[in-house]
Amino acid sequence: MTSRGTKIALFLATLGAALAALLGPVAAHASTPGSAPAEPAATGRVVIVGVPGLMWSDITRANTPALWGLTSQGSAAGLSVRTTRVVTCPTDGWLTLSAGQRSRLPHGDCALPSAPVLPGQSSPTGPPPAGGAVAAGWPAIKSDNAGTNYHARIGLLGDEVHRAGGCTMAVGPGAVFGAADGAGRVDRYVASPDKATAADWASCPLAAVDVDDLFRAYINAGVDPHGDQIPLSDKGRAAAAKAADRRVAQVVTGLPEGTTVLVAGLSDTGVNPHLRVALAKGAAYGPGYMTSSATRQDGLVTLTDLTATALKTLGAKQPKQAVGSAWRSQPSASSTHDRVDALMDEDVAAQAIRAVQTSFYWVLFAVQLVLYGIAVVALRRLGGDRRSRERILGGTRVIALLGGAAPGASFLAGLLPWWRAEYPTPVLICTVLGFAGLLTGVALAGPWRRSTVLPGLVITGVTAVVLAVDVMTGSSLQLNTLMGYTALIAGRFYGFGNQAFSLFAVAAILTAAWLTEYPLRRGNKAAAVAIVAVIGAFTVAVDGLPAFGSDFGGVLAIVPAFAMLGLMVAGKRISPLKLGLFFLAGLVLVLFISYLNARSANPTHLGRFWQDLMAGDALDVVTRKFNAMLNSLGYWPYTLALAAAIVFLFFVLARPTRWRVSLLQGAYKHSLTMRPAVICALAVGVIGTLVNDSGVVILSVAFSLATPLMLAAGLRSLELDLRSADTPPPGPSGSPEASTGPRSAERR
Description:
By secondary structure, this protein is α/β, with parallel strands linked by helices. It is built from 27 helices and 12 strands.
């Protein structure tokens, strides 16, 4: 695993060369499958040991020597076990292994897997094979998962093993759900690892083993009268982990030589999701960490990757219904102890951000609204005291710039290991405020502080560059970040998440608009349009290319927004027909990117969408995302924040104030590019909301950056008007002309 210090150094080193490095990855990504590096040869035999609930904090040299030995000799990673629910139950985890896609046990409690149907017992799918078993309730499970949004094909793993000429063995009830074929059958069944013989282990190329001691300890602890899980003591958990380790040792010692061992902590054990254990030992997995194309993160893999890894090791074909990517070893010179500590740290960070991520938006909006409200009350009580008004306007402007800097600062906070503090939430808040204060200080440090737009330009430019460089260097700042994503939710592991896309796109739009201010003042519209075109092309490349942002919906929003901006700075009119053509151009571009990605060795979701489109299945994907967009209205922290922002825009920015001129109108007077900036930032937020599954979240994030910066520009315009007026500004009954004076050299 790359150390955080190395990541920071890489981040800062790449920052200065971001534009120069753009063309190299573009050409490399368009390579054909034949140019992909050769993968290690498969051993052809694999055993999957599922230990539901196993975490890296459970593994120690003294208490779990077998698991410690596998970690020492093999490759390790944190395992994201998210399936169709927030909390993954053991049977859900086994079924996800079976399908290679997120799956679930319909209408099932989070209990131990049901006992299988054995020979001599009746089964709706027919009699079990001699020496084998059939998974209980298989027809209903298969039908239910086929009808979910994921359309999981239960039994895929077993079917592919049979298609390759092999057989399957399950050890323990849960393993039957993981190794069964489409009919719910495994060819060989053994009740527990201690009952398996050397002949059993050598009988089939694929074996799945259920080691349920850790999860069983939670079941035995029971629940309280309110139905909540009774906590398992540290001593009780350690005893359960030790019992599980003994069973793992029984498996490992009985395996034929050359067998690849995959260990997975398949599920959660309570109401709070965690990262679990992923281990691999075999010819392709030496001492080190693991990653996969599905995550692109050091030391992090997913549960759906487990199916792809087993198929690749067996030499069997991976169907497109299996969406994961095979685990890859990353050799490391770190000691076993250091690797275990680093993987434990991953989960600590995920838990720390989970506690505050949802409330961040609402707190960010609420604090700003309160401070702005105080400023409005103070201004009303001051009457005609011009100097006091200037001080309040200036102070409120600083607060607005600080609010605009906070979203970008939330990503920069990932440069520091704040989650390791004794009280991580206060440390995170202070870290974000520190970076936001630093950005605001830079925005107001030089002669540009006198401008209407340049302080905001500094903040948007830094925000856009930070996010661009991050996704171009591995997305390390996106993971476990307030406006990024977490491995616990497992919606995305690399590139731009929907929130980061919205922030990046709006920052890029505002940056491009405000950079055209001076060419337009000199009457050079061609230079202004060129600036928009260059920044727009860079933004689309960073957001849309699979090597970087890998964002389908983002391109659909960015292309028309930048096209609108180019027309507006050129003085051209925008019609609905032109806007529709711009959107169509974005669609053609993103489909072309998807087509190229579909031809690569490891296509992302962009390439898979093209494959679905060619197979006639794309409508299901579009429908799922559209429904998710509609459901986003139920995310009350974002919906309330968005409603507050809209009210704020109307009453503070747009509605006439006591000067009889809106703040936006004042900003429009002092800046030629403020109107295009506002309209195009709003356009990218609205279009992004409609074409992405996060829906209202995207518009909320767009407002979180644009609203305070627009307010700051408006406040600066009022300051300039106060200073240039020959007489003090009138009260509410004064004429609007009194608040406008001759243009000052500072009004830029």
